[in-house]
């Protein structure tokens, strides 16, 4: 049996993803939601992603989602919330049925294609995957009527294709897809995880591994994880278009920098010139630029919790909200 289910000439380079217009902010499917549904998004994110309670998910969240899906059967994004909820509960049998149902009802929805394709890989149905993607690796070919894609769509597509190629043992093609995803969203935690698995030849093993229901282990399909982006990625998506952002640094941070030979007064305005995801340990990291550092070849990168955004700047409230949650999280984890 040949492994060339999709032509081997269709590599990451042929996909030409970098020629697409890639957007951040609200995904298209969220922007098109009825207002009555969109206002429920914070509720779903809070109870499925941020502070999940299995009993509440089972008794309240899932029934609410099922009711909404019955009311809005063509609103494909609702299925993604339900997928994530079932994953939280470790309901893999129900999840398998839902993923197939989601794809059958919304076969043109990119996340439905990707979620179902992941399910097929887990179940050994790799021969069916080319048909799901219309025998192409190019988003432009798959959706010729679209001129732009949200960053979460591109990352989900790239990471799945990396997994698919790795399953077929096309290692160089798998690595090319990861490189492509990295160029679209440098520092994204999901891409870092995939890159490490590809490098250590553990990607297929990871895909086939399922946690026990009582393990507490998160095992989201990558596309679902991306729909439920981390608080870090949420903030990065929102404030990146606002860069550079004026700010000052906290007094204790200024004192610590002095020990490294970097002298910036806590009342001196500096600029955040870039932001990236430092993962669970680092949170949102920002690169600081200041005229006093023009001749200093070192890059000053600190946690965004160590800065004060200039009052009344449009990023101020967003950053402050993240800072409060991040600091509270660190306090809980450190006792």
What can be said about this structure in brief?
By secondary structure, the protein is α+β, with helices and mostly antiparallel strands. It has helices at residues 12-15, 28-31, 35-38, 41-50, 54-71, 77-89, 92-105, 110-123, 129-132, 139-142, 151-167, 171-184, 189-199, 203-208, 222-227, 231-239, 251-258, 279-282, 316-333; strands at 21-23, 148-150, 245-249, 270-277, 284-289, 300-303, 307-309.
Structure description:
- This protein has 335 residues and is of the alpha+beta class.
- The protein has two domains: 12-229, Tetratricopeptide repeat domain (Serine Threonine Protein Phosphatase 5, Tetratricopeptide repeat); 233-333, no CATH class.
- The chain has 19 helices and seven strands.
- It has helices spanning 12-15, 28-31, 35-38, 41-50, 54-71, 77-89, 92-105, 110-123, 129-132, 139-142, 151-167, 171-184, 189-199, 203-208, 222-227, 231-239, 251-258, 279-282, 316-333, and strands at 21-23, 148-150, 245-249, 270-277, 284-289, 300-303, 307-309.
- The strands form two sheets. It has a five-stranded antiparallel β-sheet with strand order 6-5-4-3-7.
- The radius of gyration is 21 Å and the shape is globular.
- 34% of the residues are buried.
């Amino acid at each position: 049996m040949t492994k060339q289910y999709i032509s081997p000439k269709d590599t990451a380079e042929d996909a030409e993803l970098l020629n697409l217009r890639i957007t951040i902010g609200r995904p298209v499917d969220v922007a098109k939601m009825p207002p009555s549904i969109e206002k429920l998004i914070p509720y779903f994110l809070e109870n499925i992603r941020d502070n999940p309670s299995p009993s509440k998910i089972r008794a309240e969240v899932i029934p609410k989602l099922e009711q909404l899906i019955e009311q809005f059967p063509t609103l494909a994004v609702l299925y993604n919330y339900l997928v994530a909820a079932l994953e939280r509960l470790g309901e893999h049998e129900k999840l398998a049925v839902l993923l197939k149902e989601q794809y059958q009802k919304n076969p043109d929805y990119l996340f439905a294609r990707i979620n179902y394709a992941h399910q097929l890989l887990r179940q050994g149905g790799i021969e069916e995957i080319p048909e799901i993607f219309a025998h192409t690796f190019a988003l432009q070919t798959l959706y010729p009527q679209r001129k732009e894609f949200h960053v979460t769509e591109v990352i989900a597509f790239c990471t799945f294709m990396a997994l698919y190629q790795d399953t077929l043992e096309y290692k160089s093609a798998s690595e090319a897809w990861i490189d492509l995803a990295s160029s679209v969203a440098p520092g994204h935690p999901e891409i870092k995880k995939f890159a490490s698995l590809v490098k250590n030849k553990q990607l297929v093993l990871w895909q086939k591994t399922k946690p026990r229901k009582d393990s507490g282990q998160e095992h989201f399909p990558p596309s679902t994880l991306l729909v439920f982006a981390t608080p870090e990625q949420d903030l990065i998506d929102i404030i990146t278009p606002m860069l550079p952002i004026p700010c000052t640094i906290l007094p204790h941070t200024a004192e610590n920098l002095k020990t490294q030979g970097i002298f910036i007064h806590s009342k001196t305005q500096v600029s955040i010139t870039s932001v990236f995801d430092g993962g669970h340990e680092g949170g949102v990291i920002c690169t600081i630029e200041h005229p006093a550092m023009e001749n200093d070849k070192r890059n000053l990168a600190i946690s965004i919790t160590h800065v004060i955004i200039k009052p009344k700047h449009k990023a101020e409230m967003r950053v402050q909200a993240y800072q409060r949650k991040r600091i509270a999280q660190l306090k809980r984890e450190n006792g």
